């Protein structure tokens, strides 16, 4: 069970608190992302406006090329939209310089990727605490132990990533994403490289982070079974939000995906 604990004071003082007015952890307003110019331009996001409520688990789905990765990249401040605004924790990301945006991502946003993206030369403990150390904040051993125990890694802190299973490596990535108590954790196909049973364990962990720690989690996935762990599925097609399903079942999600693929 993940343990709730107070938000650490490791964030820059000039960054505002979550968007109390809307309750949104992330808000995209008329976000368009265009790659290239002229006849060869690709519109990956086409006027997307959506708010993602704090302390919810959201899946982003859609056919191949519908704009899911671009959505995640723009919402997480990894890429800048061509037009429109992204607010995260009440901060308009366009107002941040590149350096401030990097600092913001490090302290206020957590990332979990399909390929785990751990540093092989660091121990599990060092991987988990890396975002704190990069931000110049001390890692309290009690909080590291609590996060590690919460994701089922207790006793493995001295190991290196190569000495862990895929599921254990993804637990390290989740602990690393949670250690700063970010505004939002963005997960890009977090179960894509795992067997079905291990994938279920990882999805339960992400669910617990929302339920027990009131984290906001946004996950891109192709998997209807993964989506049924979430509170809401947002469906993209041709760069637009075309459908939403709350408290989704895998069958509902499959139906919508079949319709979207059939409509192409
Ligand atoms: N760097 C880029 N340069 C040019 N076009 C791009 C670039 N990145 C994405 N695109 C285009 O933007 C559209 C959306 O791509 P995106 O990767 O966001 O879709 P996706 O839904 O994540 O796809 P998939 O499920 O196949 O990963 C596609 O038409 C893609 O070809």
Automatic annotation (TrEMBL):
Domain of life: Bacteria
Signal peptide annotation: none
Keyword check for Cytoplasm: no
Keyword Transmembrane: no
Keywords: ATP-binding, Nucleotide-binding, Transport
Positions of the UniProt region annotated as Disordered: 1-22
Domain ABC transporter residue range list: 26-263
GO terms, molecular function: ATP binding
Residue stretches of biased makeup (Basic residues): 1-10
SUPFAM superfamilies per record: P-loop containing nucleoside triphosphate hydrolases
Protein name: ABC transporter ATP-binding protein
Species, as recorded: Streptomyces argenteolus
Top-level taxonomy: Bacteria, Bacillati, Actinomycetota, Actinomycetes, Kitasatosporales
């Amino acid at each position: 069970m993940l343990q709730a604990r107070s938000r650490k004071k490791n964030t820059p003082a000039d960054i505002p608190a979550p968007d109390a007015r809307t309750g949104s952890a992330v808000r995209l307003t008329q976000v368009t992302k265009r790659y290239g110019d002229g006849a060869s331009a690709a519109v990956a996001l086409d006027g997307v406006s959506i708010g993602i409520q704090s302390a919810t688990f959201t899946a982003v789905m859609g056919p191949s090329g519908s704009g899911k990765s671009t959505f995640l990249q723009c919402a997480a401040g990894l890429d800048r939209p061509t037009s429109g605004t992204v607010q995260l924790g009440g901060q308009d990301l366009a107002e941040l310089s590149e350096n401030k945006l990097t600092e913001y991502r490090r302290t206020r946003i957590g990332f979990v990727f399909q390929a785990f993206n751990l540093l092989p030369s660091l121990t599990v403990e060092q991987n988990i605490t890396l975002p704190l150390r990069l931000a110049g904040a001390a890692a309290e051993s009690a909080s590291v132990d609590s996060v590690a125990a919460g994701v089922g890694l207790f006793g493995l802190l001295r190991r290196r990533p190569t000495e862990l299973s895929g599921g254990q490596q993804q637990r390290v990535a989740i602990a690393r994403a949670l250690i700063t108590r970010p505004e939002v954790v963005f997960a890009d196909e977090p179960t894509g490289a795992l067997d079905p049973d291990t994938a279920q364990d990882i999805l339960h962990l992400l669910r617990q982070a929302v339920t027990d720690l009131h984290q906001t989690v946004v996950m891109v996935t192709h998997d209807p079974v993964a989506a049924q762990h979430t509170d809401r599925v947002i469906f993209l097609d041709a760069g637009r939000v075309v459908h939403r399903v709350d408290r989704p079942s895998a069958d509902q999600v499959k139906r919508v995906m079949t319709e979207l693929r059939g409509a192409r």
